[in-house]
Amino acid sequence: MKMQKIRTIKTRNKTSLVVKEISLVKRAKDFLNSETVPARITVTALALVVLAGITTLFAVAPGLSRLAGEYNRSKRYSNRQLWGASRNLKKLGYIHEDKNSNGKPRVVLTEKGKKYFEKMLFEDSCIPDPEKWDGVWRFVLFDIPVNHTRARDALRFRLRTLGFYQYQKSVWVYPYPCEKEILFVADYFGVGEFVEIMEVSHLTKDAELRKHFKLEQA
């Protein structure tokens, strides 16, 4: 009898502030490198601020303009557009300027700006489908306490809108790589520590899943 091959990808514990900041930088880079539809300039400018603030090399101008030319989503905007967007972000309280330990000016996100940027990343999140399936099923499992009911329901709704198949009540399946997207969504709802992702290379009965995702039958 052929045994199931299962590999656990991630079990979440409470994420430290440092890890969250690193994750935010990675998400900002992924967002700016995306080939999807153009994003609002304010969100694009916020992503640039995340990178500029971490490197502590630039003030708002000309720093954002210099960074913008390196990424797909931002290089389409002019210096004037980015400068205008950064002024609006400052008025809204999403960014502020200060100096690093060496006395050089830099621009960073405020807590209000971080929350807004994470919200925009969440709304922009999607899972790309590769041209060919690798034959591995991705299972998302969670056991979320009752005091997080709203977050649990929101996570279920988001998994459904992302195209996941509900295998059991708190078990969802997808055929393509989705780890970073799902962990970001789970963290966004504040329940990342209760979510686990597994890769399963063989299921004894996956005909219904293959049919649902329009994959070739075994």
Structure report:
- The longest helix is centred in the first third of the chain and has 17 residues, at 17-33.
- This protein has two domains: 6-15 and 128-212, Alpha-Beta Plaits (2-Layer Sandwich), CATH 3.30.70.240; 37-124, Orthogonal Bundle (Arc Repressor Mutant, subunit A), CATH 1.10.10.10.
- It has eight helices and seven strands.
- The protein is elongated, with a radius of gyration of 20 Å.
- The strands form two sheets. Strands 1-7-4-6-5 form a five-stranded antiparallel β-sheet, covered by helices on one side.
- By secondary structure, the chain is α+β, with helices and mostly antiparallel strands.
- Mean pLDDT is 80; it is low at 1-19 and 55-59.
Topology diagram in text:
Elements (H helix, E strand, L loop, with lengths): L5 E6 L5 H17 L7 H15 L4 H9 L10 H13 L3 E5 L5 E5 L1 H14 L12 E6 L6 H13 L3 E4 L2 E4 L4 H10 L6 E6 L6 H6 L6
Antiparallel strand pairs: 1-7, 2-3, 4-6, 4-7, 5-6
Helix pairs in contact: 1-2, 2-3, 2-4, 3-4
The CATH topology of the largest domain is Alpha-Beta Plaits
The low-pLDDT segments are: 1-19, 55-59
| N-C termini distance | 17 Å
Largest sheet: 5 strands, antiparallel
The 3D shape can be described as elongated
Give the total of domains: 2
Can you tell me the CATH class of the largest domain?
Alpha Beta
Mean pLDDT: 80
Features:
single chain; 218 residues; alpha+beta; Alpha-Beta Plaits; Arc Repressor Mutant, subunit A; 2 domains; 5-stranded antiparallel β-sheet; 8 helices
Question: Quick gist of this model?
Answer:
This protein has 218 residues and is α+β, with helices and mostly antiparallel strands. The chain has helices at 17-33, 41-55, 60-68, 79-91, 111-124, 149-161, 179-188, 207-212; strands at 6-11, 95-99, 105-109, 137-142, 165-168, 171-174, 195-200.
